[in-house]
Amino acid sequence: MATPKADFRDWMAAIQARVESALARALPAADHEPRRLHAAMRYAVLGGGKRVRPLLAFAAGEATGAAPERLDAVACAVELIHAYSLVHDDLPCMDDDVLRRGKPTVHVEFDEATALLAGDALQSVAFEVLAAQRLADDPARQVAMLHTLGVAVGSRGMAGGQAIDLAAVGRTMALPELELMHIMKTGALIRASVALGAQCGAPRAGELERLDRYARCVGLAFQVVDDVLDAEGSTATLGKTAGKDAARDKPTYVSLLGAPRARELAQSLRSEAHEALAGLGPRATRLADLADFIVARQF
Questions:
Q1: 170 φ, ψ (degrees, to nearest 5)
Q2: 241 Rama sector, left if φ>0, alpha if ψ -120 to 50, beta otherwise
Q3: Which residues contact 24 (CB under 8 A, 6 or more apart)?
Q4: Half-sphere exposure of residue 285, counting CA atoms within 13 Å on the CB side?
Q5: In the predicted model, is pLDDT for residue 189 greater than 60?
Q6: Does an H or E element contain 254, and which?
Q7: Which residues contact 111 (CB under 8 A, 6 or more apart)?
């Protein structure tokens, strides 16, 4: 697939820089007590990652005319949740990994207890950020937005998906089981990112449903590509330990379908994502670009 267009790359870089600054402001300063905990939180969040979820939130907000200041808060919230999940997933009691975003994982750089507390605190800060400013003209909508993120993070979303993932080690899963696991573990926060960004603006009738269909497709596509990259990429390019899924005998799209069919599935999901955006017109350009980026990425 062709590399991302220059204007999209410029947009992406601008949003990434904006989100980095917003995250730095949202996190407690490293010189505030407890200093070690705050340093670990900042270490986990700042200076790394593609910021896919904030990018999706901004793109969805652009599609519904949302104010950038509102999107700053949503982008921070979803990235803080994502960072917390990575800190906990890397712990020895979970995936037991030592490398993340090209540097030692939080429990390696600090210690396990600090990593556990850092993840807990990052989750809390995410909800603080969402509740601290007006994100919607209707207060009831803002309460609903908090509920959306809560469901995405909990046992019906990320935490539940991780539980299924841990229980699946060493056994074969049918494709519907694998999809359900990743709809929860990876897809729930991606869907929430799109929904929250869109609700910061003024979505028209039927648009939230279209955007949710889009988000479901890109959420699954993201995981399919992750599985392919884990199987075929290198630790140096990925910034995390390559081949760990096969080493732990975890069911993946590659182990179930093989890499060629997994890549075909990712392309099919990309096409479905584009179809879901039909009718939104130029307002959805960045969402379409992100679907292409998610499927085409090589790192």
A1: 85, 0
A2: beta
A3: 42, 46
A4: 9
A5: yes
A6: helix 253-257
A7: none
pLDDT higher at 23 or 250: 23
User: Which contiguous run of DSSP H or E holds residue 107?
Assistant: helix 106-109
Region class of 206: left (phi > 0), else alpha (psi between -120 and 50), else beta: left
Take residue 168 and report the two structure tokens written for it. 């699946």
CA distance 161 to 156: 8
Mention every residue, 6+ apart, whose C-beta is less than 8 A from residue 8: 286, 289, 293
Q: For residues 263 and 276, what is the distance between their CA atoms, to the nearest angstrom? A: 20
- Segment holding 243, helix H or strand E: none
Q: What are phi and psi of 93, to 5 degrees?
A: -75, -10
Note the pTM of the prediction, 2 decimals: 0.95
User: For residue 281, is it left (φ>0), alpha (ψ between -120 and 50) or beta?
Assistant: left
Planar angle of CA 51, 57, 58, nearest 5 degrees: 90
* Strand pairing report for 99-100 and 103-104: antiparallel
